[in-house]
Sequence to fold (705 residues):
Amino acid sequence: MMIIKNLTVSVAEKKILDDISFSFEKNKVYALMGPNGSGKSTLAYTLAGHPAYVLSKRSRIKYQSIDIGSLTADKRAKKGIFLSFQSPLSLNGVTVFQLLRLALSGKKDPVAIKREMEKLGKELKIKPELLKRSLNEGASGGEKKKLELLQAVILGAEFLIFDEIDTGVDVDALKTIATYLDSIKKGKTVLLITHYNRILKYIKPDKVVVLVNGQIVKTGDHKLAEEIEANGYTKYQKHIG
Amino acid sequence: MKQSNLDFNYKYGFSMPESNVYKSRKGISDKVIRDISTIKNEPSWMTDFRLKAYEFFKTKPMPKWGADLSKINFDDIYYYIKPTNELKNSWDELPKEIKDTYDKIGVPEAEKKFLAGVSAQYESEVVYESIQKELTKKGIIFCDMDSGLKKYPEIVKKYFGTVISPYDNKFAALNSSVWSGGSFVYVPKGVKVDLPLQAYFRINAQNFGQFERTLIIAEEDSFVHYIEGCTAPIYSTSSLHAAVVEIIVKPGARVRYTTVQNWSKNVYNLVTKRAKVFDNALMEWVDCNIGSYVTMKYPSCYLVGRGARGEVLSIAYSGHGQHQDAGAKMIHLAPETTSRIISKSISKDGGRTSYRGLVHVSPVARDAKVYVSCDALLIDEKSRSDTYPDMKISNQQVDVQHEATVEKIGEEKLFYLASRGISKIEAEGMLVNGFIEPVTREIPLEYSIELNRLVNLEMAGSVG
Fold:
């Protein structure tokens, strides 16, 4: 699905990711863990194509066998890559429906989008007025993350990156989000970036990847997440130091 | 007065071969003014009105504040062009090039769909007008200003120049001396006009000045919505549009005046618009300035009756080379008067927008309420936005709220939308339309769609 090779990424000339290689497969859920500043969000932004993240010459990102390293973010999104933001921005005067209608123009009928949106809104327990308002305006942390998930589903994304979907989200909302995500994961790749183990109770990762100082220091199954929850990252940081 | 980098996306930039039955010589003089008045067969009071205004115009210096007007050459302008010999009320009777022009702009189509009356001005004169028969039966008058003066001299003489004196400012004086065309609207007591009346203004000739004059009188408890649209061809030399619009809103009446100004980017648009609002009456200006080279326009409400309300909803868009100096004036001259100004401006590609507003609350305006909100959106670093909000509050018992914001579209919002598959150009268009949404939702649907389309076109045009 997605293969990254020798990925070295800098922001404002500062190296954040250091020669990472990894393969993400279809039908799998990945948990990306690591201490603050280890480069987790950078990886998310890089895969989505943020223009501020500069790749080294040797870096390769292949998605569905196509080199997407030089594609702009909108073109990557059109190929099925979706990024759910850590802190989604509010968009003044733009509703989620307007956003989806524009993103899917020529692909999906607006009436169908609306219907799908309302149905999904109910399943995710999103207050109906939030769908009519400017996107994310006056929404709580949990509601914002639900709206991100709703967009991912309606856009038909196949590679879903969730940057800290569990931050600022209460227990009930987290359960709703994770359970729903678990129910739709088939045929997709899900990459969860998280500090905590709590979301992983509702959606079990097939693989846990630990990122420290811009490098992958350990991979394992879901037990690795539990081990980190108990002992922290100290021993991996030492390993590098 | 050369301009460069014209936007070739401007849909109305075409010109037609010039044809006319009379064209004044270049420049302005007593003779030119007398000739206009003679051709129009006006009463002598109007000729005098014109000549006095011209005396004032000559002595008054150019305004030093606001946009740069130093390149206007008053001697290089044609002040009066009469395109046809008579006014028509069937599109098919118009000369082909004029009919084609309005077809391209889409006027006859709009008329069929959602208008109660239409007036179309080409150069100096209204060439077409129509009004639904039921409205005439109810006593509503909607005609060009020249016919108004001929057919209803008492009403015109009573109100003409009473809201905006010919000595108000240099451009009101210029308009008062060479005015031609514009609309005369009279709505009798208690009559409500459900569908809008619309006037279209078209400049076709080069180096031309259009000086229409509009007078709207809404008697007690009446309602009317008047819409104006303006377009012109793209020329490398500049044209001048200096209109005067006077509105009288009698007790309990409501007038809404919507402008979609889309002049080509070689037009100086210097307009004076003012309403006198009586007891418990409501005046609403919806003012959208997308086109023109330079605009200076500050629709005003003189709130003279107890409980009078005034509103200005304003959108200004400035692209490369443009300067929109727009805003509003609210003068509270009676107790319990309310005013609301909402201004949204967008600057892109080095364009410049200025919000210039005056709110004056006089000592007698007890319990007045004032709300001013002006938001500016900058699309890039090259562009500029300024805010000049002036408040003169001479009464202690006043509720004043003022908000002003400047925001940039910003990479993060664009990236957010890009991560949903939306390109930069589409995203900018959507964000700008979202930004002006509080104003566009007040405009009839047909116009808000057109406005959104225009914004998308402007956003796309300057990137390519």
Observations:
- The two ends of chain A are 33 Å apart (CA to CA).
